[in-house]
Records
---
Amino acid sequence: MKSIFAILFSFIILSCHSKHKNNFKAKEIYTSENLIVTQISENSFIHTSFKQTNDFGNVPCNGLIVKNGSETIVFDTPINDKSSEELIQWINKTLHSKINAVIPTHFHDDSAGGLQAFHNHNIPSYSYIKTIELTKKNNFVVPQNSFNDSLILKVGTEKTITKFFGEGHTKDNTVGYFPSENILFGGCLLKELEAGKGYLGDANVKTWSNTVEKVKKEYPNVKIVVPGHGEYGDQKLLDYTIALFKDQ
């Protein structure tokens, strides 16, 4: 009888744990004038900084922090070195974590604008080889390490995958995936629901939909999708972006 009770009790605990895991309530856990950090799952956090533009006003720019044990990896820097320094300090002091790497997913400043702050802390940076070329060409701070197609980096006992699927928002846009929580960081390749096409100065609108189709096929189990700007969501962001640039 005792063993039956123990099994039942374990099952209840497991059910509660699973339920808690699946129904994580996102919450802002840090807010300042320049930076917002929102926890979206047990081990993933969106960092949002702000870019003042002539055409689109004060634009919120997203990046992603993923964590395992006492290690983190950061996708995209905040918009400048000041906001990036603030984020680095927050990760060190609040998450009590080392930053293993920073990965700018394309060459624009809403992805790599705060790279120098990370380099100042001896945090290694990694980018797709074309991102290296484009940062050099534009006299931006250049990521230190390149990859040709995809990159797997460890964070604690888990891994992250960064991969180039084709041109879209830029010629070099990559996406980041955190398999343990099925979270996709789409960066500026992906749009929030109801978004317009945004800045197209470096875009390839003809291939954009096809590129996102490949992302969707590669990660069928994705649960959370984080765009470069605006609200995160689920697979609907992939479908919305595909439809937005279809038949260009």
---
Amino acid sequence: MPYSIQLYTLRNAMQEDLPGTIRRVAEIGFTQVEPYNFVATAKELGAALKENGLSAPSGHAPLLSQDQDEIFAAAKELGIATVIDPYLPAEHWQNAEDIQATAAKLNAAAKKGADYGVRVGYHNHAWELESSIEGKTALEYFEGLLDPELVLEVDTYWAAVGGQNPVDLLARLGDRVKFIHIKDGPGTTDTKAQVPAGQGIIPVLDVVAAAKSLEVGVVEFDDYAGDIFEGIAQSLAFLHSAQDVNA
């Protein structure tokens, strides 16, 4: 199982020194990254990834609110094979009609992405799990409306914050899930309370095992009270040690 790092985790360091941050990511042992806002940084980011031997199989971009052609062109330039819309506020997840409209927009985006050889996905927060539509979570209702080629990136921490057992949720969503966000902590909205994988209440290894069609597990912190580079290093070490035990 390859592990990636969502670069939003390192957003402050990236703003100060993008090449240096990418170099540190590689030195910690990551071989893959998941960029965010990559249209704005494509040239500098692409050079840094190449220099450090890193790839970016997935990336986050606001497909439903910004120029899709620009996003897909930048993704293709960076070798990003899957572009994931990272965020749609809670008000979009409260009724069937709004969710149907969102699914239709994402299905259309996927058709445009296919012209660039880029796949499209969606990443959840808590509210897609807190809301219920026709007896299902809003995220599961939404999944049923997506064209077959679309994928989900399940943020397993926000799923727990939203009241769902992430292991059970991943089992229900099945093969649609190709990426997960791996994070840990107390399972609350206090992002600064997040901790390295294996140190909180999330059953991280069970979560990884539950995603049967997983392509990449993406380490992420929304925020962190300690040294963020130490935090991601601890998360990666925990995941790798578990792999070694199971090898």
---
Amino acid sequence: MGESFGVYKLGADEEAMRWITSANIACGFHAGDPDIMDRTVGLAAEHGVCIGVHMGYPDLAGFGRRAMRLSLEELTNCCIYQIGALEAFCRKHGTAIRHVKPHGSMSNMADTDDAVAEAIVEAVILTTPRTALLARPGSKLGKVAIERGLPVISELYADRAYCADGTLAPRSLPGAVLHDPEEAAQQAVRMIVEGWTKTLGGQRLNIHGDSLCVHGDTKGALDLILRIRAGLEKAGIRIERR
């Protein structure tokens, strides 16, 4: 959330906030700006939504979805900067950061790249050392975080297709983004209840997690959220903030 910029609006944050338990808020590098961050943190605080740092590469034009190669020091400082910015707005609104989650290409690279994972974990340890890190099951990021003593929340994706190795299918591939609310809800329920999903190539992928992501910039995100909630509740799954 918070991925609008200046006069450009992206997503339906106001409408969606009442239906979610946690919000990953952009910090001005891949999207967002100080005013947007302020409003989004305030909105989350108003609705009792847990706030997460959604830090990305310094790539506004590419929305943080282009691969960048930074040194370990550059990437660590890039993350520290964004954590600090969001933490300041949280203090303004009387709330606090509850988790940290890398965005886009940074997140994808942290799945398999030790150096990227190390930089992200180092930044969290240096700034908010007891804060949970969201990571995909089986990722380098999750492994490094656990080794360094950070709490990890395994994250699943309701609106994205998976590859056989558990990484997200590249957005350039047809079918990589799920736009049909019913299809997204079925995938969410299957992962949470049965512990598996079907990959983009049609294979079975066993997968388990504690948190479920819907991208705010996915077309029809609010409809996806409402349908997913309904499907989970029908399956007897309790959705809670923690």
---
Amino acid sequence: MSASPVLWSLDARGVATVTLNRPEVNNAYDGALIQGVLAAIDELSTKPLRVVVLKGNGRHFQAGADLKWINAVRPQSPDENEVASRATFEAVQRLNTLPVPTVALVQGGCFGGGTGVIAACDVVVAADNALFSITEVRWGLTAAIIIPQLCDAIGVRQVRRYALTGERFGAEDARRIGLVHEVVPLADLEGAGAKVVEQLLANAPAALTETKRLAMESSFGGMAVDDDAYRRLVRLHSDKRRTAEAAEGLASFAEKRAGRWAAAKV
């Protein structure tokens, strides 16, 4: 097992690298990884920071939620389920609102919550082997807490396709719809990221912070939700996890079979 679910470092230029470090499960997130992201942001917020680069160790960037962890959380109380959803929301929200530019480097799989994470970053560079999917509906879950950010990044029309079908799509399609900005050969991913960082470092720090803030203020969606909306998203996310439909979806994943869905009641 990996020593720590999240690693971070900071170089002399003020460039931080935050690395998701659960390669044995394709960097699927659980409570420890979420807390690791929050702790890294807390630590970095006390440093002379200019840019944050987000990466994933191993073959894949981030494979969404660890469904074993989801299965462990779901039978707990409603309050405990809300705590888990609130922490997940907070990790994405804090990435989104960092006052410095963020750059995500994506290789391999980027599924479920991973798509929300990159939608919360300012610049996304993907390797040509990257594969994406907003997977929650396949397992009887909802992507409630990342839907606003995805709508901001790729538009409601694209969310209404990809979050409803749960289909997988490649790097070029991700670029076409605006989820990623640039696609490069896998061998060039680090170099392409370094070029973006150099471009950002050439710009005035205070001007970058103000420009990012103004862009987000002008956003129609994103994570710019009020307290009531925030609570509703967390509640929807956590309540759905505790349903019979989620139980069946998670069982279908564990048993490697199609979900046996009851007819919808309209």
